[in-house]
Specification:
The chain is α+β, with helices and mostly antiparallel strands. Helix content is 36%, strand content 26%. The protein is built from four helices and five strands, in the order αββββααβα. It has a five-stranded mixed β-sheet. Helix 1 runs parallel beside helix 2. The longest helix has 12 residues. It is globular. The protein starts with a helix and ends with a helix.
Length: 100
């Protein structure tokens, strides 16, 4: 699975992000990023966005594992594979949405 496929998968599951109420950026390094806009109705997923409420820094490889369900968001954070800046509450809400 590559970043394009992850973006497509997140777009297909965009309704899972209803109630997020925030703009989240996945910073993949090297200028690559994915944004989830949980403020929009319905939520949107894309490669560009405004200033996020929360930024999640994760490698593309680990984002693939996260998307495939092979890496739990909480474990990724606890082991340093996922770094959070901004609103930690939003990150926790998103983690619950991703694990469902």
């Amino acid at each position: 699975m590559n970043i394009d496929q992850i973006e497509a998968q997140m777009k297909a599951r965009a309704l899972n992000f209803v109630g997020l109420g925030a703009l989240v950026k996945f910073d993949l390094g090297g200028g690559d990023a994915l944004f989830i806009d949980g403020r929009a109705t319905p939520p949107t997923v894309g490669r560009q966005g405004a200033a996020p409420d929360t930024t999640l820094t994760i490698s593309g490889e680990n984002l693939v594992k996260l998307a495939e369900g092979k890496l739990a968001p909480t474990l990724a954070f606890m082991t340093g594979k996922l770094k959070v800046s901004g609103n930690m509450g939003i990150a926790m809400k998103l983690a619950n949405m991703l694990e469902d």
